[in-house]
Amino acid sequence: MSDLVNDIRAQGIWLPDWVASILIFAVVVALALFFHRVAFRLLKRLVASRDLFWRSLVSRLEGMARPAILAAALGFAATVSPLTEYQASTLRHVLLIVFIILVAWMVKTAKHIWMTVYLRRFKLDAEDNLLARKHVTQSRIIERIADTIIVVVTIAACMMTFDAVKQYGVSLLASAGAAGIVVGLALQPVLKNLFAGIQLAITQPIRIDDALLVEGEWGNVEEITSTYVVVKIWDWRRLVLPLSYFIENPFQNWTRESASLIGTVMIYLDYSVPVSAIRAKVEETLAGSKLWDRRVINVAVTDFRESVMEIRILASASNSGRTFDLRCEIREKLIDFIQREYPQALPQVRAVLEGREERGRKAAAE
């Protein structure tokens, strides 16, 4: 390109340096845009018969690749144009930083497209969503960790383009030990949660949409970020806990291995009630319920107390929400049955009052 300018000047046509630079930049930009258009037309034809990921990737990267190609082309133009050394080096430095940021942006976009296409195979609203919750949890944690790594690498790559950073890099190594200790202490909470996130992604004590009993509250895991977990409580409040909490503290996970749960209903009745009648009513209630999954049913007397006996009813449902509703349905229909058929079986307080009839007669006589 510079040879072309020199040939023009050799023929007696004088061009100022700024005009020559504009001419070179214009030609390079036109060639870069032409290359971008041809390249992506070809890529679209190649991926037309491929899967959704490649089609989405080419479609999304088309707009992002244009400024990246222009930045690379302008960097080449700055080298061959008749700019001063300071102007050329400054422009190349700026364009290099822009190119690094654009490449990082494209990598992040490609990662997001892959995650989105991958997670489309799993549905959290399925009846038994254990497998879906497993993959969604792992993918979201890994995605956030990958985002952090991309940002750190991008910042490091941009900083390394400055000579000052390279110059002082050797001297910084000498104090790296002390600096590492100081930084490690300062960033201890952040690093603690970061490693906790990696451990959660691997071991998965909790997953997205798991039903938890934590800090005395019952709810579902709504979101897992790189630093904290959001639990949506049954009354729509949100309980926010750091990731490290689930590594260091005990909690109840009701859907760890399966979405199905066994619900418990405890009722305390007088000794006069026939247990067989209670068992028959529970079986009738569950047989007509759409919430019961036909797997577990049990009615048993589990304790004798001073004035009542404890009857435990077990029934299973496909998930925690249906289990809760099934327990409520059993309570409502069972208490209605007892009130109608065996009202004397409801808990009562008995007392024997000696001489009550005698006092009653005296009061009537007076």
From TrEMBL:
According to the record, the segments passing through the membrane are 20-43, 64-84, 90-107, 168-187
Q: Keywords for this entry? A: Membrane, Transmembrane, Transmembrane helix
Pfam families associated with the record? MS_channel_2nd (PF00924)
Mechanosensitive ion channel MscS domain: which residues? 190-256
Q: Which InterPro entries does this one have?
A: LSM_dom_sf (IPR010920), MscS_channel_2nd (IPR006685)
Which Gene3D superfamilies did the record assign? Answer: 1.10.287.1260
One GO MF term on file is: mechanosensitive monoatomic ion channel activity
Signal peptide positions on this chain: none
Q: Which GO terms describe its cellular component?
A: membrane
What is the protein name stated in its UniProt record? Answer: Mechanosensitive ion channel family protein
- The protein's organism comes out as Rhizobium sullae (Rhizobium hedysari)
